[in-house]
# Entry
Amino acid sequence: MNGQMMQQPLLISSFIVHAERHHAEREIVSRRVEGDIHRTTYKELAARSRRMAKALAALGVGLSDRVATLAWNGYRHMELYYAVSGSGAVLHTINPRLHPDQIVYIADHAEDQVLFFDMTFLPLIQAVARRTRTVRHFVAMTDRAHMPSAEVAATIPNLLCYEELMAAQDDRYAWPSFDENTASSLCYTSGTTGNPKGVLYSHRSTVLHAYAAALPDSLNCSERDVILPVVPMFHVNAWSLPYVACMTGAKLVYPGAGLDGKSLYELFESEGVTFSAGVPTVWQGLLAYVEANHLKFSTMKRTVIGGSACPPAMIRAFGEKFGVNVLHAWGMTEMSPLGTACTLKAKHLALTQEERYAVMAKQGRAVYGVDMKIVDDQGAEMPWGSETSGDLYVRGPWIISGYFKNEGGDPLVDGWFPTGDVARIDADGYVQITDRSKDVIKSGGEWIGSIDLENIAMAHPAVAMAACIAAKHPKWDERPLLVVVKKPGAELTRDELLAFFEGKIAKWWTPDDVIFVDAIPLGATGKMQKNKLRDQFKDYHLPTA
Ligand code: ADP
# Structure
């Protein structure tokens, strides 16, 4: 017997329809590439999204055609989130920090038809425009007054102006209804090895993920929030915040290209931001700026930090110095991205602050909808609540079942997706990521978790950034080598730093050596590129060898 409830497909357009109807006057504020602060409302954004949907149809974009963006976080990018996906096409958000060769590769692989770009990326567009094979139109996301000169425009085939496309349409457009399993957006993983692979989200997976992301023990968003997504809209749909904001009616503040500490801080204060989200490296810049200028956050209460391990020292700095609660979260492109979020359980409320920090340093509990397990080398499920870590497997309705165009074959093992992360899970279900499997250090057959070592190093007041990699060792096979960037002006020796590990970790986990460097290479999403460090130090001779 079937239930007798309405059959309504879960569609992305429903977010903007809801926001327009129930939160029409709530603001969306953007720092624009043009240099000013732009203000709009859900009402206007909804109308402009419909106009842009008509403009796309006029350009010949049809169901499931791919439309690419190379853009910062801003209202025009958000209009495209709805215009493209809402009309049944697929939004392909390209990471502009990728190498031009990679951009050409993924635009071709995705068979992008139209490519929208912020003016910042004009030189990049000039470099790739004549090399891409399927893009029929390039659209500069600006008005006529800010369009490139005729000379520059001549270097880009079929260059169009965003505001002119918009002006040519009215907003009389009804969002179409279609199967909720239709593809909605496409994101390529950064592909530290091999070519990037496409992760193709559906309307259904995106809507279900947004419900779960907004929950109190996930991102906990409401109409009363003012959300500033630092995490780029080209990085896994900005962790779903452009959807969650519409769903809840929160005010949105988009930072555009201004991701330095000063620009971010100004927006936090002027717009009354209550909640933000980003990778640890961004927060480092913000914290450094706020500390150096003796500033305080007057409205910011919470921030989610994920994408790579958030050092416990950062959670503490935010909490103790600024009264900002850090929500540590874990996920990946293949998971839309949210897998776990770290909030306390009722039983933790009686703990001391110190003990609570220890819980908050973990990556957190699975959000409803994500099922997880850890397995050993033989693929056998391991118990929770032990100190041993295993390979982390996940499954759920917003987790990948196969890469775009079946690149790389079937990624699943018995219906589970192997995340490539190594983790332990405690008796309460809190996950602690100890490594990416390709970063694991194998010393005498035993695993050493590089993230644990980095977290300890990062707690030293003189350390700005630390990466721990495996270095070759004749006896142990591999031993940990710590690569460290000191804070500006700070003094620190190898021995002082190694002494700092004493008592904090099993003695045999202590790194064998420390190398001080000026900078650690960061990837396109702001994460440390340990593969580059491994290459750089592949012949490093450890003093213990
Ligand atoms: P890429 O880094 O290849 O761009 P993702 O952005 O999807 O791809 O990154 C996902 C990976 O980032 C995870 O598999 C995990 O290794 C790492 N990661 C994400 N969040 C955390 C976290 N809170 N702690 C530790 N590692 C994390």
Q: What stands out?
A: The chain has a mean pLDDT of 95.
